[in-house]
Design a protein that fits this description.
Radius of gyration: 19 Å
Bound molecules: zinc ion
Shape: globular
Strand content: 15-25%
CATH architecture of one domain: 3-Layer(aba) Sandwich
Largest sheet: 6 strands, mixed
CATH topology of one domain: Rossmann fold
Order of helices and strands: HEEEHEEHEHEHEHEHHEHEHHEHHE
Helix content: 25-40%
């Protein structure tokens, strides 16, 4: 009933809801309550917020989140700042997106969602306390699935990889709202709080570089939007495994090679739906995209471990990328951020 009322409000002449989704291709507008997850033209949604909406965020949903530390650590004479997103309540940065998305859905009366995930997004959405069905590839680590189930979600295991898992979730949505961290722009909007935190922790300044591991690009796009609002972009360098590097290939115009299994499980995404936005974020920040060998990822994981950081291998990929990038040296005054997207305990 509430949904019908909101839709009528939306359609009415006195449009009182200004926040909405719009298609990034044809600009058609949709209410946030829409059960379409992309435009009828096939374009993906972006979020429109007026200055007034931006102050009127519905943050009634909490996962128990708090600002995460920004830890400076020396490695081979170079200082890196690690943004410790593994300290989020469910152990990954996805809590930021889930809080924002589920907070808004609770406000408009949506109480049932479904999503597909390699693990972290499913845990975050389930922990936000909404009825949810979570589709996971059947080769995802058992620990990840156990965690999602512990928060009370229904689990559906899907064979034949991540892309097929996504297709299944979309096909079987029924009356559930699609709480995808890839398709739903509110999720990405939540991640931008990470940019504001980094800015505050650096005394109100923007870092020089951020090395971002890229799977579907949720963290990069959230950071990009946050720093764009702040008014200045750091250089974003996207990092992928050489075994699955579609963004690196597209960024540099390399021919696509068949992708293989990489140990960095959560960034193993062969065709990120938001590829164009990812490339835009990297290019407009005068950034770069680099691929690292799985061996270098393991070496970086060891270096993190020696400093007391037990991270998801995506974090090690980002560090391996940063070390390769600055192999010839790093100016002393650079502030280089390496996010730790998730805890190693989730492997
Ligand atoms: Zn469209």
């Amino acid at each position: 009933m509430r949904r019908a009322y909101l839709l009528r409000l939306w359609m009415g002449r006195n449009r009182r809801i200004t926040m909405h989704f719009f298609c990034e291709q044809c600009k058609k507008e949709y209410p946030v309550a829409t059960h379409s997850f992309q435009c009828e033209c096939g374009g993906l949604f972006r979020l429109y917020q007026s200055a007034m909406d931006a102050k009127d965020v519905h943050d009634g949903v909490t996962l128990g989140e708090m600002p995460t530390p920004l830890l400076p650590r020396m490695m081979d004479g170079q200082r890196f700042y690690f943004k410790m997103e593994d300290r989020q309540p469910t152990g990954s940065f996805k809590d930021r997106g889930a809080k924002r998305l589920i907070g808004e859905l609770a406000h408009i009366g949506i109480d049932k969602v479904a999503l597909d995930t390699a693990g972290n997004a499913g845990a975050a959405v389930a922990a936000a306390g909404i009825a949810c069905r979570v589709y996971v590839p059947d080769d995802v680590a058992a620990e990840r699935v156990k965690q999602i189930a512990a928060y009370g979600a229904d689990i559906v295991r899907v064979p034949n990889g991540r892309a097929h898992t996504m297709a299944m979730a979309q096909e079987e949505l029924g009356d559930a709202y699609y709480a995808s961290h890839i398709y739903n722009p509110l999720f990405i909007d939540g991640v931008k709080s990470m940019a504001y935190e980094i800015y505050d922790q650096l005394g109100g300044t923007v870092p020089d570089y951020i090395f971002v591991p890229i799977g579907n690009g949720t963290m990069l796009l959230g950071l990009y939007q946050g720093f764009e609002e702040i008014g200045r972009l750091p250089h974003f360098v996207g990092v992928q495994s050489t075994k699955c590097a579609p963004v690196v290939d597209a960024f540099h115009g390399f021919p696509r090679t068949p992708y293989r299994h990489t140990i960095a499980e959560t960034i193993r995404v062969e065709e990120p739906p938001r590829m164009e936005a990812i490339l835009w974020a990297l290019r407009s920040s005068q950034g770069d995209a680099i691929a690292v060998e799985d061996g270098a990822i393991l070496t970086a994981a060891k270096a993190l471990g020696e400093r007391g950081i037990y991270a998801e291998l995506t974090a090690a990929a980002a560090l391996a990328g940063a070390r390769a990038f600055f192999a010839e040296g790093m100016p002393d005054n650079y502030r280089v951020i390496v996010p730790i997207p998730g805890s190693g305990l989730k492997r």
